[in-house]
Design a protein that fits this description.
about 325 residues, alpha/beta, two-stranded antiparallel sheet, 9 helices
Length: about 325
């Protein structure tokens, strides 16, 4: 929660006259936090997956895949980490391919694909994790994969401010670990560069996606705001601007719940580190709350001969129909 007394770093937001307001997009809420993250991953992911600093919630990936694709479609994640998007796609009967920059996580993602194969997931034997920089996506994908993917589900790295695990050391207090991406000296890793360079790099990835996806494909990006020096970084609005400039059409804004819906309330799920951070901020006079959702931005690759208004109107009608059906 944020009130008007809190400062927002508006200067970091890329500007363009064509970027729509988030409030103008169709909105839906995804109940993706009914089960704890560990329960969602149990049995489907190898123990080595736990160490990744920014794992996507499996239910978020699964919801997007079920909603925006059909069985047999190809799903792509250009920053796949431990392969959550790929694993959930396979278990839903979709094909999957991913790209990952860090060699260690390539190995972990491949192990998770092998596990999915052993569990009988469809198309698992054909799934691939490619090692490389997603900014060079067109050179990494095979010619037969170009123009085939129906959906991208991915997330930019947020840095150490929102991730990590903690352990209690007797006599030594609390120690944070698994909160960094790879080698901090590797400036090719988007997680290890400044905020503006991160946005520029992610925009290049989105532009590459526009060139390799099939017409009408969707791009689903999970993202959340974070704070630097008590100032709010409005990353969702910034990613919206990046996607628009990259040639993608914003069609939906969704809320993926990280907490459990119970009765008439929402029970937030927070790690020890997140709760400790909130407590310290409140002690300092900043009335923060645990993060209870992620923003989900949905873009579309415009088919030839169509226009932005038609595409957005179609999605608005679909969203309205789903609301009435619910």
């Amino acid at each position: 929660m944020l009130d008007s007394s809190h400062s927002v770093r508006a200067t970091a937001l890329p500007t363009t006259a064509d970027v729509p307001n988030l409030d103008d997009l169709p909105l839906s809420v995804w109940p993706t936090g009914q089960q704890p993250p560990a329960s969602q991953r149990r049995g489907r992911y190898t123990p080595g997956s736990t160490a990744h600093p920014a794992k996507m919630l499996p239910a978020v990936a699964a919801h997007a895949i079920a909603h925006y694709t059909r069985p047999g479609d190809l799903v792509l994640d250009p920053m796949c980490g431990i392969g959550t998007t790929l694993v959930e796609a396979l278990h839903l009967g979709r094909r999957a391919i991913g790209v990952e920059y860090e060699p260690h996580w390539v190995d972990v993602a491949c192990a998770n694909l092998d596990l999915a194969d052993s569990l009988g997931a469809s198309f698992a034997g054909d799934a691939r994790v490619l090692h490389g920089d997603a900014r060079q996506l067109a050179t990494l994908l095979s010619p037969e994969a170009i123009g085939r993917a129906a959906l991208v589900v991915t997330s930019p790295p947020y840095g150490p401010s929102t991730h990590g695990q903690v352990s209690v050391i007797p006599g030594g207090g609390v120690q944070k670990y698994h909160h960094l991406y790879g080698n901090l000296l590797d400036r090719g890793n988007l997680a290890n560069i400044g905020h503006h360079r991160l946005l520029a790099g992610f925009e290049r990835i989105l532009a590459a996606l526009a060139d390799v996806l099939r017409p009408g494909a969707h791009v689903v990006i999970t993202v959340r705001p974070w704070r630097e020096h008590a100032e709010l970084i409005d990353l969702p609005s910034q990613i919206l601007a990046c996607g628009t400039r990259a040639g993608l059409v914003p069609v939906e804004r969704c809320v993926a719940l990280l907490g459990r819906v119970a009765g008439d309330g929402l029970i937030a799920r927070g790690s020890f580190f997140q709760r400790d951070f909130i407590r310290k901020q409140r002690d300092a006079g900043l009335p923060l709350h645990l993060i209870a959702h992620e923003d989900v931005l949905v873009f579309c690759v415009l088919p030839a001969g169509s226009n932005v208004a038609t595409q957005a109107a179609g999605h608005a009608a679909d969203a309205a129909g789903e609301t009435r059906a619910a």
